[in-house]
Every structure is written in C-alpha cells, then in structure tokens.
Write a structure and sequence with these properties.
- The chain has a domain of 55 residues.
- The protein is built from 5 helices and no strands.
- The longest helix is centred in the first third of the chain and has 10 residues.
- It is globular, with a radius of gyration of 14 Å.
C-alpha cells in the first residue's frame, strides 16, 4: 500500500530552485499584483522564514527594490526579518 505524500515530505528549497531554474520570476509583477489577491504574500515574504530559501531567492533576483516593498500591513521584508 502506497503512503500518501505529506507536507513534511516536500523539499521546498529544491522546489524553489527548480522553479527559478525554469525562469519563474522571483519578483512580483506590479501589474499582476494588483489583479491578484493582495492578501497573498510575495515570494520574498515567504522566504524570510528560511535563511536558505531567502539566499536562493536573492541569488536569482536583480531587483533589490523588492526588499523595500511593503506588504498589506506596511512592513517591508527587511523590517519583518529584523523583527524575527
């Protein structure tokens, strides 16, 4: 009997690298951001929880402005990182 895949089984860092290798953009598109659910965090906010993921994301981006783009609460990724 096959065991169902569980959340803990997913290698998120590997998934992130794979997406970025296949040219997924780590930077939110401002035009699309307005059309999407604004409550969803951008990739940089998701990566703050994992130093390894954050490093991978920063290695793949050239847009350093994303570090100073506030979320719906007015906090920037740098501010959130400093809080934790």
């Amino acid at each position: 009997m096959k065991r169902k895949m569980q959340y803990k089984d997913i290698d998120f860092l590997k998934c992130l690298k794979l997406l970025l290798d296949f040219k997924a953009s780590p930077n939110p598109d401002p035009e699309m951001r307005g059309k999407l659910n604004k409550k969803r965090p951008t990739p940089i906010f998701q990566a703050i929880r994992s130093p390894e993921s954050l490093q991978v994301l920063l290695d793949y981006t050239r847009d350093i402005k994303m570090l100073n783009t506030p979320n719906k609460h007015g906090k920037t990724p740098l501010f959130v990182a400093a809080e934790s």
